[in-house]
Amino acid sequence: MTRLVVLTGAGISAESGVPTFRGPDGLWEGHRIEDVATPEAFERDPHTVLRFYDERRRALHGVEPNPAHTALARLERAIGADLLIVTQNVDDLHERAGTRNLVHMHGELRRAQCLSCGARPAWDADLAPRPACPVCGERMLRPDVVWFGEMPYELDRIEQAVVAADVFVSIGTSGAVYPAAGYVALAAAFGARTVELNLESSDALIPFDDARTGPASTLVPAWVDEVMRAGA
Ligand code: NAD
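# nicotinamide-adenine-dinucleotide complex -> structure
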């Protein structure tokens, strides 16, 4: 069987109405990255940071998976554990589309992390009012998202899958955030065919074997159809 690793970024959720990271103005929803996505920002102004993620979490109620998410879920139903999706996204659109074999390497909006006891409970309410941790009772919850300067989740599992992959596909990611941006070179070094599906060519470390430009909602279902026809 062909083993596939699919890396997704903010671009796959753009057509669902979730804005990407770097808008044309270099801001994320009107905020500078260093004001909302670093541990230093949280230390300096926890209320602003908690409110920013509370707004992002609430916005998830108004969006739905798009055909790119559902096509990847369809591929998983067809080939099972030979497909691993590694997402940099903190939204929950892959799982809502039906994907199960999924790593949220940058964490999840709908999960909190307790700075006192380390618990990571599923979380859907606002964190700015400083609610109590359901495990230890301390009021030290933060969003369970990985900020710049922090270690992404499950790196060993991801790297093992990338080096073992026959095909590595990057969808809707700018290639600016490491270590995710390095996976294409790692996959290629271990012999994988590399494919990019993006609105425009990204700043990838090495050229992809196959780079297709266009919206994810059309490119991804078409690519999934090809893979299924080839009987991956
Ligand atoms: P990015 O914003 O840096 O880049 C987005 C990429 O998507 C660009 O290359 C752009 O060309 C492409 N793109 C935009 N619209 C597209 C479309 N319709 N179809 C296909 N491609 C499209 O995003 P990134 O590389 O994922 O940056 C990583 C950081 O952004 C992560 O840490 C992530 O946690 C955070 N983030 C996540 C979300 C989310 O969860 N949906 C949203 C914003 C930011």
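# post-check
The pocket of nicotinamide-adenine-dinucleotide is lined by residues 9-11, 13-15, 18, 20-22, 88-91, 106, 172-174, 176-177, 198-200, 202, 215-216 (CB under 6 Å).
The mean pLDDT is 95.
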